[in-house]
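thought: fold this chain, then report.
action: predict
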Amino acid sequence: MEKIVQVILTGGVGSRLWPLSRKSRPKQYIPLFGNKSLFQLCAIRNKPLVEDILIVGNQSNRNLSEDNLKDLGFGTYSEIVEVTPRNTAAAIAFAAFSVPEDTILLVTPSDQVVTGEDAYANAIQNAVALAKEGFLVTFGIVPKRAETGYGYIEFDNNDVVSFREKPNKEKAEQYCKSGKYLWNSGMFCFKAGVFLEELKQFEPDIFNFSKNAFDNRDGNTLGLEDSNLIPSKSVDYAVMERSKKIKVVPSEFGWSDLGSFDSLWEYLDTHEEGPSRQNLVLGTDKHVEFLGVDNIVLVETHDAILVLPRSLSQEVKDIYERLEKEKPELLQ
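observation:
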């Protein structure tokens, strides 16, 4: 029987959640959810469904992952430490090189929120069944709204018709109305060997340089010189959008990548008791009053204050990118 291993990808800085999310503590490690982080919730919900956990993340996140798992009492797990990020195709390749080829990898980003335990377990079960048949499986979320912050998957039952980039509002509304599109969750399930075969076919440089870096690693840590040779490409572009072995599991569980203050607001409104908020305040214990304005987000940290209308949540990334050049200390 094939062993199932959860691969938790811990990359990403959560730039659209600045100033809460920083390089020293990205959004997946912020304890916003009943004193638990997204990373911890990811590990908890998958523990009953897998035999082992494998963390693939960068050196700066290593201690955060270790502390988060220690707080949960998770004593045993494996890890691969990247000294420089080379995107998700290489990160998943490292995981695949580290296990027997018939091992089923359940690949999950660490920065998503999932609700609906039974629906989630059912989707994983369906994906594992398809993975055992030799397919590369992605999870598509039945859309709840016309979301412009997600990619979409055009589908027919378990078949993928096409992948679509993040759409504008008009196109997103068309996608949702048609009933033929799913949100692209960024979660995957496949046999390690099948993934590596496809990666080698479509991106031989990523395969070969990743293999070289993995073989030359020092303990669990990859070398900088070897890693810098690996082309940086997402798994979607490298494999999933090119392979003929793709299947999708349409999924009804609640899902969000919590990639913006808008999606965080929606989550809190859904899961916290009390009247719906008119404005959102985060990061401060101070009493805050709003007069004559609605749909405002106010975020305070020890060194920064951010105020924005909810409708501009996606634009926070522009501030982050500007601060990288002008005041990089505010991103640390």
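thought: worth noting. The chain is about 35% helix and 25% strand.
final: tokens above.
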